[in-house]
């Protein structure tokens, strides 16, 4: 049986590209709730599905290593729903074909890595998926100059990037997030793929499947099938949203939202069953090239109140449309056009699973775990100045060191 690749077994079966951990940290980026398909299959090695193939990624201080497992039918490799990660130069193909793993030469040998001819294409996919043309060092410098709290947190949480996911996978994964937490969402997305996605390969008795197609999700029998798999009310939202997209817009509609303004794309997504403002903002930020989108959930609301002394609508007990808009505008004014990227760093730092990093750096403060329960930790209060926004009596709290970020992002390959 084929095994998951491990770099320590030898680099012959691996490819590599220059990328420092300050620009990308796999353990933070792949486990912070953006994508739900990556697993740590051995220490520091992350295996998941991207572009219709299975990858294992790992890294050293200045190098990103990757191993791509081939499907059996090499002639059609990469053309079956080709590179759905969203690279603009790649054609999309939604044909539904089923593949088995290529036979391994030895029982303990990983499936063969992609050929030399595909190396440039594979690297381009990785650069697109991790948006490596955006220089995180430049962004952190700008945000840190405008926001002392962000600078404090970012000293530890460097390398958190926004992924550029396939819009179909991103949308239907986030429909599953309603009243849910990361580990449970991962299980639901995995069951969805195993039940409806094309099989790709099997490694160490783990079967990997591609994400289902829109036509597969829109079938009238899907709701009942997903309910049997534990999706509850989300089963209807998944089937109805897929059907509505195909009936009213067509299979390329989601990708087309990348080319329209943020608010138009968000409002278009909100017409789908089960898609509210937060889910729409997540899809905009994580798959539709809208870096200004700031998804607001209870984590982000608490961050705004706790760390930025955000006082507007302080008496509210739930997130309304107005509160969502106000908090998003608050952070967009503070951080600029890549506000969603900055928010993801603070969101990541607030997750229970990453608190050991903050403890090591003596950055203890109240946090919420994935289920929303608060842990009490001592923290150093930020001194703030409060000023009136002049609208409906709302207060906008601004830490003394906060200034509006002037973002001038350099887009160039990470070396």
TrEMBL record:
Q: What SUPFAM superfamilies has UniProt attached to this entry? A: DNA-glycosylase, TATA-box binding protein-like
Q: Which GO terms describe its biological process?
A: base-excision repair, AP site formation; nucleotide-excision repair
Instruction: Please name the CDD domains in this protein's record.
Output: ENDO3c (cd00056)
Q: What class of enzyme is it?
A: lyase
- What superkingdom does the record give? Eukaryota
Sorted alphabetically, the keyword list is: DNA damage, DNA repair, Glycosidase, Hydrolase, Lyase, Multifunctional enzyme, Nucleus
Q: What Gene Ontology molecular function terms does this protein carry?
A: 8-oxo-7,8-dihydroguanine DNA N-glycosylase activity; class I DNA-(apurinic or apyrimidinic site) endonuclease activity; damaged DNA binding
Where in the numbering of this chain does the HhH-GPD domain appear?
176-344
Which Gene3D superfamilies does the protein's record reference?
3.30.310.40, Helix-hairpin-Helix base-excision DNA repair enzymes (C-terminal), Hypothetical protein, domain 2
Q: Where in the cell is it found?
A: Nucleus matrix; Nucleus speckle; Nucleus, Nucleoplasm
E.C. designation(s): 4.2.99.18
Query: Major place of localization?
Result: nucleus
One Pfam family cited in the UniProt record for this chain: HhH-GPD
Give a yes or no for keyword Cell membrane in this entry.
no
Which InterPro entries does the protein's record reference? DNA_glycosylase (IPR011257), HhH-GPD_domain (IPR003265), HhH_base_excis_C (IPR023170), OGG_N (IPR012904), Oxidative_DNA_repair_enzyme (IPR052054)
Q: Which reaction does it catalyse?
A: 2'-deoxyribonucleotide-(2'-deoxyribose 5'-phosphate)-2'-deoxyribonucleotide-DNA = a 3'-end 2'-deoxyribonucleotide-(2,3-dehydro-2,3-deoxyribose 5'-phosphate)-DNA + a 5'-end 5'-phospho-2'-deoxyribonucleoside-DNA + H(+)
Cellular component (GO) terms are:
nuclear matrix; nuclear speck
Q: Tell me the function of this protein.
A: DNA repair enzyme that incises DNA at 8-oxoG residues. Excises 7,8-dihydro-8-oxoguanine and 2,6-diamino-4-hydroxy-5-N-methylformamidopyrimidine (FAPY) from damaged DNA. Has a beta-lyase activity that nicks DNA 3' to the lesion.
Q: Which family does it belong to?
A: Belongs to the type-1 OGG1 family.
* UniProt name for this protein: N-glycosylase/DNA lyase
Q: Which organism is it from?
A: Oreochromis aureus
